[in-house]
Amino acid sequence: MSLKLGDKINLTIHDLAFGGEGVGRITVTSDERQVTSGGNAPATTTDESSSLVTCHSSLASFVVFVPFVITGETVEAEITEVKKNFARAKLLRFITPSPERVAPECNYFTNCGGCQYQHISYTAQLGFKHKQISDLFERVGKIPADKIAPVLPCPAPYGYRNRIMIRSQWNGAAKKLVVGFIGVNNKYVEEIEECKIAEPVLNEQIKEVRANPPPKGGIKVVLRVQPENWEVPRDSFFQNNFFLLPKLVETVQEFLKAGGSRHLIDLYCGVGFFGIEAASVVDSFVGVEYDQLAIAAARKNAASRNITNGEFVAAKVEVILPELLQKFSAEKTAVILDPPRKGCWPETLELLRQTKPAQIIYVSCHPATMARDLNILCADGVFELARVQPLDMFPQTQHVECVADLRRRN
Hints:
Helix content is 24%, strand content 30%. By secondary structure, the protein is an alpha+beta fold. It folds into three domains: 1-32 and 54-100, CATH 2.40.50.140; 127-155 and 239-408, Vaccinia Virus protein VP39 (Rossmann fold); 163-224, no CATH class. Strand 4 and strand 5 (52-55) form a beta hairpin. The longest helix has 20 residues, at 122-141.
């Protein structure tokens, strides 16, 4: 068959891609046609007396991505986009549903762009995420699957987010201001009255925003639950899931103890969370963050806990790192990397490869950039990956936090 927009097809889902879309394959054929000879057509027969080349149909396996499905399901879908090497389709109905399919708790699911997995049982979500991370790390980072530990579950699969961003957008057709989240089309705001993955107090704040909406479209409103006993400036980063935060701390501490380093450099430290939580494991530490408000908060957070074996510096990581790596003995120093989603600067990775600290603990909510950076760090045997521990800090969504333990090779 040839594929075009609006076609309805039956499809068996073979996998879930990282990002949440189901992956199916169909066999397609190119239409037989004639073109002027001398062009780039994949001709199979020619007639020397003619200026035309005949192109015969060919069979090919074609990937089709469908959201909100589960591996093993057979579904009917409608083609919504056709590219050279793949197509996308929307789900119409289930022919053979998966036993792992559950009823979503949110009325906005499949319209709101925040969640991708509410239709999958939570146990199955953890399994799919582990496979996705393993496949991604093996493909991008050349990291074998046996290095990836099982995903640690969140005690609260719903009602866990302590920070959300509400958006406003003027709906010209309805002649009203819409308040909610970006929809699955990644273009229009889906109006919402509550968020099932947000902490209950944030849903009360959503009601307040809706009762007193922004004056115009295009305005973003950040709603946050302040972490207990931590000072966090309004725009500074803090982990979005308090329920699994103790396990994240425990993982970092466990890796640090196993590495045996006595000094710690905490890069992209924010309000000092990892450095402060790891202070008892090392003799000394220094936290680095470009956000000066976050550094001021980090100093207060350390002082309120009587942490005296560390300091915090407001600077760009790539500028101050050479000085810090000269200050401590490399064989006794560990580095924590908790960079933005885009990953580390190439200069930072190269400097770490040259100075070779005893251990690097890499924390990231973006496995793709993490796998890329780990591949660079481990190239030519400079570092060796001991273990990757995924933590499901973002249930019901495509996202997952990972902590990697790298050791300098002798």
